[in-house]
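Form 7-S
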Amino acid sequence: FIVIPGVMGICAWSPPLDELGNSYKGILFAKKLIEKFAFHQFDTVQGSAKKIDPRLHIRQETREMQINNMLSAASNNDMVLLTRYIETGVDFNMPDYDNRTALHLAVCNGHMNVVKFLVGKGRVQVNPLDRWHSTPLDEAYKYEFKEIREYLEGKGGLLGETILQQATVQY
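Output:
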């Protein structure tokens, strides 16, 4: 049996080859399968661009699906999917229906590595306002993530209230 969690299960049968019940044809099939498809989380890190990742259908994704998947990846610390999205040129500033971005959700969940990734490689805006006029920095204060707060402030992060005050002074 071959099990790829969340993707598929395969059963190949032929007379057993070893004490574990692995067959010659089953092993041969598995080797050919991993030559063509990227199932391992480090396949993207190693630059296996020639391999097909059947878990991702980025070209067929609608904008809404991309936003949902990107936000889910940011909130769940899924660096594999975030890296794949960077490679395909996805805009990490795309907000959801509440105007929340991947940066908002990474901050809310305390994922410093995702925050640095989004600001550095994803080139996200550090001060997007959601529908409640909160920025990622507001979220860092709210959830008491000092390291993230200091990082965002170092990158020019502002509180939503400050942005709104600056906007009203300009007009």
